[in-house]
Amino acid sequence: MLVPPPERAWSRQAILDWLLAQAEAPMLVGFDFSFSAPFVARGAHLPGETTTTDARALWAYVDAASNDEDLGAASFLEARRGRHFYLGAADGAKADFLHWRTCEVATEGGRKPSTVYDAIGAAQVAKASFAGMRLLHALAGRVPVWPFDPLPDRGMAVVEIYTAIAARAAGMRKGISKLRDAVALDTALAAVGSRPHAPLSAYDDHSTDAILAAAWLRASVGRADLWQPAAMTNDVAATEGWTFGVP
């Protein structure tokens, strides 16, 4: 089921408030944005600018340099376009901005479609990711965020997810991962061991992705291999993080 927003739609601040209010609940929360920027390949999150040596320091840096409403980070990217972020042809060759994290290279045997330095187009994840880092910074010390924090004995934990992984687990073919009706959603839910969903007033990709990903998280939380991926070294975990579900 979907949790209804306190007002017309969920804001980032409302999500933060809800998470903090539920922090003692036995809950695994998945966010579909990158929890950090690449570090391992170039030895810096924003080469020539940052001296951050772990993801938490990057979150604090982004938060301090962003004054956007509702934990946004659009101004952070705009101020660094052409230097770190690609926002259009005026910034140079797009290929010069394409750098991936270790887990992104490992995803489904190939790179994810975009990187946190590519901030243009429908597939871009940059704006959501850097805004999300501000939310993660606000959670620091109050809700554990994996793999930067150890998993708690009780209460909430937050992980990074990629909804296409849940779709693959439900038997959906690569390139066909969107559910747009009740029957298709319930079929996918059954494939990951879940009961049918509570009916929705409208079936859009965001809603169905959220429901299927939540069901998949519930089914996968006990898999030790997903918590200990082979390529996630201590350095990778601290500087770049990892997407839960990438082996």
Fold blueprint:
Blueprint: H1 12-21, E1 28-31, H2 55-64, H3 74-78, H4 102-106, H5 126-139, E2 157-160, H6 163-169, H7 182-191, H8 205-220, H9 224-227, H10 234-239
Helix pairs in contact: 1-5, 2-5, 6-8
Protein name: DUF429 domain-containing protein
Explain this structure.
By secondary structure, the protein is mainly α. It has one domain. The chain is built from ten helices and two strands. A two-stranded parallel ribbon has the order 1-2. The protein is globular and about 50 Å long. The two termini are 28 Å apart.
Strand content: under 5%
The total beta strand count reads: 2
Distance between the termini: 28 Å
Helix/strand/pairing class, anyone?
mainly alpha
Rg, Å, rounded: 18 Å
Order of neighbouring strands in the sheet with most strands:
1-2
Order of helices and strands: HEHHHHEHHHHH
Range of helix content: 25-40%
Poorly predicted sequence stretches spanning 5 or more consecutive residues: none
Shape: globular
Give the number of domains: 1
Number of helices: 10
Instruction: Describe the largest sheet.
Output: 2 strands, parallel
Mean pLDDT: 94
Protein name: DUF429 domain-containing protein
Organism: Sphingomonas longa
